C-alpha cells in the first residue's frame, strides 16, 4: 500500500477501534509502561516517561488521545502553519525497506493553526501526556516575512500546548532551511521569546535543527540558543544525504528528507556535539533513527534529555515505546 494511504488507513482504523468499549483500556494495558523511575522533569515540565512521538505523525492534532494509549510520554503535533495548505504533489512519501528508512517531501500539509487549536481546545482526554506544538511557515510566505507566520502560530496554539518547536529545518519547503542562518534565526527566536515573556506564563520554546549542519553552523546554534535564552533544541530533522543507502536507485533519486536508521549515528553525533560544546547548557530532545531501546540509550548517553520516535514506530510497530521504556528501566537510564 502507498505509505501515505497506509498512514491514514491505520490512524483512521485506530480512531474507530478506540470508540469500542474497553478498547482504549486494552491498548493501554498492552503498550503502556508506568513507573516513577521513568519520569523526567525537563524545561520545567514533568514527563511521565522520556519517549515522545515526533512531529509529522499527527499534523492536525487528530490522534492525541488515541496515540497516548501506546505509552508515549509526550506527543508533538504539526508542523502547523498559519493557513491551511495541501503540501507537495503526491506521491510524496516512499519506503526504503532495505534501509529501514523513509523519504518524505510532504511539504507541511496541514489544516492550519486555527483548526489544530480548535481540536486541542476540545480535547477531553490528554492521558497525562505533554503536548508540543511544532510550528512553521506557509510555502507562499517569503522568508523575509516568515517571522509573522511563526508569531501567528504561537498565538493560535499558546493556550493549548505545553511547549513550542520552531521548525526551520525541513528540506521540503523551498528556502526554509535558509532560516537556519544566524541572522534570520535570531530574529524569529528573539521575537517569539519576547512575546513569550509577555505572557502570564512563558512556554518552553525549542529549535528543531537539521542533521546536515556543519560544525561551525552547530557552533552558531549553541550561540543562538544561549543568546535568545530559548529552552532547548530538537536534534534532528530528516537529512538530504543519501550516503550509505542500499535501496533501489529510482527510490534514492526521489526528492525529500530521509528518516529512519540511516539517521541513527548522525543525529547522535549532533546531540553529542551540541551537548559538549554548550557544556550541557540546555536540554536536547534526541530524534532520528531510534528503532530500539539501545538506540534511545545511545541518544541519552550522548546528552539528550528526552527522545522521540516516528519512522522507528512505523518499522518496529506499536510495541516500540514500551520496549524502550523497559530497556531504560533495565539499564537504569
Automatic annotation (TrEMBL):
Cofactor note (record): Binds 1 FMN per subunit.
Keywords: Cell membrane, Flavoprotein, FMN, Membrane, Oxidoreductase, Pyrimidine biosynthesis
GO BP field: 'de novo' pyrimidine nucleobase biosynthetic process; 'de novo' UMP biosynthetic process
Primary location class: membrane
Residues that, per the record, bind substrate: 59, 104-108, 167, 172, 237-238
GO cellular-component term (any): plasma membrane
UniProt key word Membrane: yes
Annotated binding of FMN, by residue: 55-59, 79, 134, 167, 208, 236, 260, 289, 310-311
Entry's localization field: Cell membrane; Membrane
Catalytic activity field: (S)-dihydroorotate + a quinone = orotate + a quinol
NCBIfam families named among the record's database cross-references: PRK05286.1-2 (NF003645), PRK05286.2-5 (NF003652), pyrD_sub2 (TIGR01036)
PANTHER family: DIHYDROOROTATE DEHYDROGENASE (QUINONE), MITOCHONDRIAL, DIHYDROOROTATE DEHYDROGENASE (QUINONE), MITOCHONDRIAL-RELATED
HAMAP family, A to Z: DHO_dh_type2
Function in brief: Catalyzes the conversion of dihydroorotate to orotate with quinone as electron acceptor.
Subunit architecture: Monomer.
Name by which UniProt lists this protein: Dihydroorotate dehydrogenase (quinone)
